[in-house]
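Much of what follows relies on a compact textual record of a protein's fold. Here is one such record, which you should read through line by line:
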Amino acid sequence: MNLAAPNWMAVAACVVVSMVTGSLWFSPKLFFPSWWEAIGKKGDTPVGTPVTWVLLIMTSVIQALFVALFVGAVGRAAGGVTTASGVTTGLFLWMGCVAPAGLSNKLFAGRIKAWSIETGHHLINYLAFGAILGTWH
């Protein structure tokens, strides 16, 4: 795969979407209180250090880049990159890699509720990434 092939502006848009969806999903009015409790935390909520935020952005870039590479590869194999093929690719990557990997980490920790909240956020991101990358290829 050629790393020059992805639309880097679309990858950047995916990173922005990831930050926005994360801010909303894990807001106090949505899932943060339930998630915080589900991971066994109490008390003050974290703000995160600058290193935390840099690493978070880096992971979003990596995820968006790999979704872009797969959207391109699957789209080319299927006869063309489209919004639908992008969303389908995002769904399959989430279903085959992200959700099971996260579940295997949470099963032994007894944190299924945390997994459902976290993987729900990842699902939203992977579908959005696929739509963005399939449309803006």
Observations:
- The two ends are 15 Å apart (CA to CA).
- The chain has a mean pLDDT of 93.
- The chain is about 75% helix and 0% strand.
- Helices lie at 8-25, 32-38, 50-78, 83-107, 112-135.
